[in-house]
Write a structure and sequence with these properties.
This protein is mainly beta. The strands form 2 sheets. Strands 2, 4, 5, 6, 9, 10 and 11 form a 7-stranded mixed beta sheet that branches. A 4-stranded antiparallel beta sheet has the order 1-3-8-7. A hairpin with a 6-residue loop joins strand 4 and strand 5.
Length: about 120
Amino acid sequence: QVQLVESGGGLVQPGGSLRLSCAASRSIFSSSAMGWYRQAPGEQRVLVARITSVGGTNYADSVKGRFTISRDNAKNTVYLQMNSLKPEDTAVYYCNANGYSYSGYARSSYDYWGQGTQVTVSS
């Protein structure tokens, strides 16, 4: 029922830019914190950037000042603008949505993932 679809990945030279997009299901987007994670071969998946439902952001130190996360609630879409890309940014980038759903007095958490989009930074 819930879908997250990433787009915008590709091959870029060092110093270049890419903009990733993640379109999420309307049913959960506005209430979710949205994040971008990345995973390089042989590495753990790590947080790149996160934005809360009310617009607060945080970034990994490695991307601070270079990447910007934003969200458009009207379009149910989160973006990751990546500038000054470096070879070490090469990874599969995954979109994440997490939050809580409510039913009466019950609350349950959710954590959804997209399928990922490849970003390769190479000369």
